[in-house]
Each structure stands twice: as structure tokens, then as C-alpha cells.
């Protein structure tokens, strides 16, 4: 049985569309997300930044208002969505562990928020 060329082209395009990005590009995206997450944590928790030796936020204190807590929760949900969009297939053990740990931390924070 011979398949029509248009069917083969369609099948190939579907197969390529579903293949994940190369490991290097996914790892670069994950590392960029880690950097963004770290900077967000420092900005939202200035005392922690100071304890880590980053003095950019010494003129601020952590905000515990309801609005700030809701904003932090929104950031957590956004980071969780973004990290889950990066498949860890083919990552080294260390990179996969880092990926899994951030997912776990963020899932726990979202669950904690939902439990009040």
C-alpha cells in the first residue's frame, strides 16, 4: 500500500511539531527561569537578599500585606507553569534534580496558599 505524498508530508509535519526542542535550548530556558526566579525571590524578600550578601534591597522590608501575598502567589503559579512547560528529558541528573526540586517547591507554595 502506497500512501499519498500529501499524507506523508502531513504526517512528517505533525511528528516534527511534537518533537521537543534540543536539550541545550531547553536547558538554557530552564537556567534563565532559575535566574528570573532567584531575582524575584531577592526582590520580594529583601532581608533574605541582605543575608545572602546582596545589598541592592537594603532600603526595603518584605511586604506582608494581602495584596503582596496575592502577588507572590501569582508569581509562584506563573513560575510553576513555566517550569512545567520545560520537559526534562535528556537533562543530566543534576539538571533534572534542579528542575524537579523547583517544581516541588512551587507546588508546595501553591498548596500552602490554597490552604491559607
Supply database-style keywords.
116 residues, mainly alpha
Architecture overview:
This protein is mainly alpha-helical and 116 residues long. The protein has one domain. The protein is 72% helix and 0% strand. It contains five helices and no strands. Helix 2 packs antiparallel against helix 4 and helix 4 runs antiparallel to helix 5. The termini are far apart.
| CA-based gyration radius | 20 Å
Terminal CA distance: 62 Å
Q: In this structure, how is the largest beta sheet organized?
A: none
Backbone shape: globular
Strand-helix topology:
Elements (H helix, E strand, L loop, with lengths): L4 H14 L4 H22 L1 H6 L14 H19 L8 H22 L2
Summarize this, please?
72% of the residues lie in helices and 0% in strands. The chain has 116 residues and is mainly alpha-helical.
Amino acid at each position: 500500500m502506497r500512501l499519498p505524498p500529501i499524507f506523508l508530508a502531513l504526517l512528517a509535519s505533525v511528528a516534527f511539531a511534537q518533537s521537543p526542542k534540543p536539550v541545550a535550548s531547553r536547558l538554557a530556558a530552564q537556567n534563565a527561569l532559575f535566574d528570573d526566579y532567584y531575582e524575584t525571590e531577592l526582590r520580594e524578600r529583601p532581608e533574605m537578599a541582605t543575608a545572602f550578601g546582596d545589598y541592592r534591597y537594603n532600603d526595603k522590608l518584605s511586604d506582608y500585606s494581602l495584596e503582596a501575598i496575592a502577588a507572590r502567589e501569582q508569581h509562584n503559579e506563573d513560575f510553576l507553569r513555566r517550569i512545567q512547560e520545560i520537559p526534562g528529558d535528556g537533562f543530566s541528573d543534576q539538571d533534572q534534580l534542579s528542575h524537579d526540586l523547583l517544581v516541588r517547591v512551587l507546588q508546595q507554595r501553591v498548596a500552602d496558599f490554597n490552604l491559607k
